[in-house]
């Protein structure tokens, strides 16, 4: 059986590829579901590029590097790299799944999407572990939680995310269909159906276990132990960093859970086509929902900013900067003192964050 005869899905950001009729243009396959997914992709791009760029500019070029700031910096870098590639996929869906960009960009586009997913969840896991160690094991944290060690861990995370996402560079391929339509799909094998199923299952479960289940369990354990072991709960619940990390983690898993659920359901399509209609509509929406996560973190920083409670005419970048500053100072400045600083800041300098550079 040729690969073109087997129903194919584009893993990680894919629509179901039906058999195109020769007399129908690609655009005829743009359904309302696909339009909705395109809206989500476009929002992710339009908000994700400036939002993550602002975070990178603030942390990367304005502040002194700390362990906490480095984690958030690399989280923003992963999201920015991904959203910069989104126009390729938006064009692909908008033209009825026609890929005019060549095989190598097909591979690169899929690889970047996987790299973003794994890097983001690994950085969130590392941030959660970092919080647990910092609060529960302060002696160990003081000795080993250095900028140098943090950079080493960051490098390991990037390498690990690259390795796990690298199969896309091997399996992604292009195929010419009728009417000069070129698709970008997973070419697991040309003829061996059993090998196609085996590789599809293996990659799906690796992504689910390492990109979802293991990080989720790790974060749940970390936060459960924090809540249980920290006797003075005000130290934990008053921490701006705690609530910021918790919000980012919850939003990540809310956005990515539908994708992983339908990816696992998708495995049954090799043996049973009864879920064809469900997957055709569900996968584009779950993928769009997952993509939107790449633009949400800067928005969360704004919504969580205490400065927003006192200043009503503050720019987006200043709200992001203020929240990141609160996060970086978490555990060193008490909430009452920090709140009074925020209020006084608005009154004294007319919405300016501070005079000169701020180094957490």
From TrEMBL:
Residues 51-301 form the G-protein coupled receptors family 1 profile domain. It is a multi-pass membrane protein. GO terms for biological process: glucose homeostasis; inflammatory response; phospholipase C-activating G protein-coupled receptor signaling pathway; positive regulation of cytosolic calcium ion concentration. Keywords: Cell membrane, Disulfide bond, G-protein coupled receptor, Glycoprotein, Membrane, Receptor, Transducer, Transmembrane, Transmembrane helix. Its main location: membrane. Pfam families: 7tm_1 (PF00001). GO terms for cellular component: nucleoplasm; plasma membrane. GO terms for molecular function: adipokinetic hormone binding; adipokinetic hormone receptor activity; complement receptor activity; G protein-coupled receptor activity. InterPro entries: CML2, Formyl_rcpt-rel, GPCR_Rhodpsn, GPCR_Rhodpsn_7TM. The chain crosses the membrane at residues 35-59, 71-90, 110-129, 150-170, 205-228, 240-262, 282-304. SUPFAM superfamilies: Family A G protein-coupled receptor-like. It is found in: Cell membrane. PROSITE patterns: G_PROTEIN_RECEP_F1_1, G_PROTEIN_RECEP_F1_2. Belongs to the G-protein coupled receptor 1 family. This is Chemerin-like receptor 2.
């Amino acid at each position: 059986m040729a690969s073109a005869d087997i129903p194919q899905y584009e893993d990680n950001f894919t629509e179901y590829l039906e058999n195109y009729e020769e007399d129908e243009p690609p655009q005829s396959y743009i359904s309302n579901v696909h339009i909705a997914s395109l809206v989500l992709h476009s929002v992710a791009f339009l908000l994700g590029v400036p939002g993550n760029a602002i975070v990178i500019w603030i942390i990367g070029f304005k502040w002194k590097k700390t362990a906490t700031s480095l984690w958030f910096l690399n989280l923003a870098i992963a999201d920015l790299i991904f959203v910069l590639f989104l126009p390729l996929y938006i064009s692909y869906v908008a033209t009825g799944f026609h890929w005019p960009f060549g095989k190598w960009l097909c591979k690169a586009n899929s690889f970047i999407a996987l790299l973003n997913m794994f890097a983001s969840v690994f950085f969130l896991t590392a941030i959660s572990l970092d919080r647990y160690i910092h609060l529960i094991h302060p002696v160990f944290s003081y000795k080993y939680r250095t900028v140098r060690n943090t950079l080493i861990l960051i490098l390991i995370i990037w390498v690990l995310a690259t390795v796990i996402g690298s199969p896309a560079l091997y399996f992604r391929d292009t195929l010419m269909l009728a009417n000069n339509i070129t698709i970008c799909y997973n070419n697991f094998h040309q003829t061996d159906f059993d090998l196609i199923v085996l590789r599809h299952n293996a990659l799906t479960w690796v992504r689910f276990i390492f990109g979802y289940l293991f990080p989720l369990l790790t974060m749940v354990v970390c936060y459960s132990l924090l809540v249980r072991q920290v006797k003075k709960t005000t130290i934990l619940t008053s921490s701006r960093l705690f609530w910021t990390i918790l919000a980012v983690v919850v939003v990540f898993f809310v956005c990515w859970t539908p994708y992983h659920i339908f990816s696992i359901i998708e495995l049954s399509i090799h043996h049973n086509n009864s879920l064809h209609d469900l997957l055709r509509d569900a996968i584009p929406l779950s993928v769009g929902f997952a993509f939107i996560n790449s633009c949400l973190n800067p928005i969360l920083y704004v919504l969580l900013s205490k400065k927003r409670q006192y200043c009503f005419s503050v720019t987006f970048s200043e709200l992001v900067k203020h929240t990141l500053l609160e996060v970086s100072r978490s555990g060193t400045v008490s909430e009452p003192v920090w709140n009074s600083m925020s209020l006084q800041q608005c009154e004294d300098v007319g919405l300016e964050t501070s005079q000169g550079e701020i180094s957490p």
